[in-house]
Amino acid sequence: MSLAEALAPASEAEAAEAVRDGGPFEIVGGGARLALGRPVEAAPLSTLRLDAVTLYEPQALTLVAGAGARLDAIEAMLAAEGQRLPFEPMDPRPLLGSDGPLTLGGVAATNASGPRRIQAGACRDSLIGVRLVDGRGTVLKNGGRVMKNVTGYDLVKLMCGAYGVLGLLTEVAFKLQPIPETSATLVLRGLDEARAIAALSMALGSPFDVTGAAHAAGETLARIEGFEASVAYRAAELRKALAAFGEAEIVMDDPARWAAVRDATPLAGAQGAVWRLSLRPSDGPKAVAALREAGAAQDALYDWGGGLVWLLTPEDGDAGAAAIRAEVSRRGGHATLFRAGQATRRAVAPFHPEPAPVAALSAGLRAKFDPAGKLNPGRMAP
Fewer Cβ atoms within 10 Å of its own Cβ: the N or the C terminal residue of the chain? Predict the structure, then answer.
């Protein structure tokens, strides 16, 4: 069944009835994230008609909307009030080569978080409430505006990043943030990766409240946001602090540069698989150097001060999975296969293998919330 033929309930009650009486289903919003995780062989169930904004209180910095609400429309509505989602959600379409609208439910289900995570936290830190339908077709609620409260689980945190395998999100609630008056980006050029991460670590350790720290396409970037006078002062002082790394250019209000970091667009046009590595910032360049030596890495982009590494690899064989996971595990990190063809995503576990005790907990949660395996079966684990 094509995405155009997807079952699209117009209400939470209809969604609950669909899950209760049917399935299995592949949960979709606009289809932009279908290439994440293992391929799912199931009928599509779309949230696009669950798109109502049920509460927006600018004075309280609070938004409640259906999981199918379009991200672009939400961001435009918030911007008109001088507000934004704090965590700068990634647009995966350039990297995945996908299309279709981004939805709030997709953002929450994948915990999509951009460069501002280092200062404002991840998506799950701004998500304050959820409504969902579990695999039995039961409506559950937690946090925010909360028919049935579930004792013993923090559903807000549990559902954020669960990729729909525990429940079909129908509504999400977020706390918001004012848009700052201006921003400045300090740009250093010509640094190798290790030196760039050292510069970013110094910037993040400074008192100047850096809200973005990345190294991409030969540029080392540190962002400062806030009131104009404060930004000007802090940018000048940070430039002095980074003088040992070179003469930093200060660029005012440069959203396109940070959108490219957020969406990893420097890797978008390159052939090959793309991995998402989480490591200690100081370990990122070392891990990438070791993987390049082993032939398992080509290009890399660093975000979150080096704690997030986007890694381009050849897609031959296991797309470098064995080498990458051995290297990353040795350093206490984890690796997710973010972009690859369907055959590779069937053969290679996209998500980092869990230790046996954690895998048992994950399986127990899936059995609790979706005992019949109706929701995104196989997305995260076979």
Answer: C
Is pLDDT at 145 greater than 90 in this prediction? no
Domains in the chain (CATH in brackets) are 3-178 (3.30.465.10), 182-251 (3.30.70.1710), 265-346 (3.30.70.100)
- 166 DSSP assignment: S
pLDDT digits (tens, 9 = 90+) for 153-177: 688 999 999 999 999 999 999 999 9
The SS3 of residue 122 is: coil
Determine the 3-state secondary structure of 367 from DSSP. Answer: helix
Which tens digit of pLDDT belongs to each residue from 83-109? 999 999 999 999 999 999 999 999 999
**Could you give the maximum distance between any two Cα atoms of the chain, in Å?**
65
The whole-angstrom separation of Cα 207 and Cα 302 is: 22
The pLDDT of residue 292: 96
pLDDT digits (tens, 9 = 90+) for 267-322: 999 999 999 999 999 999 999 999 999 999 999 999 999 999 999 999 999 999 99
Q: In the prediction, which pLDDT does 87 show?
A: 97
Cα 52 from Cα 65, distance rounded (Å): 6
State which amino acid sits at residue 345: R
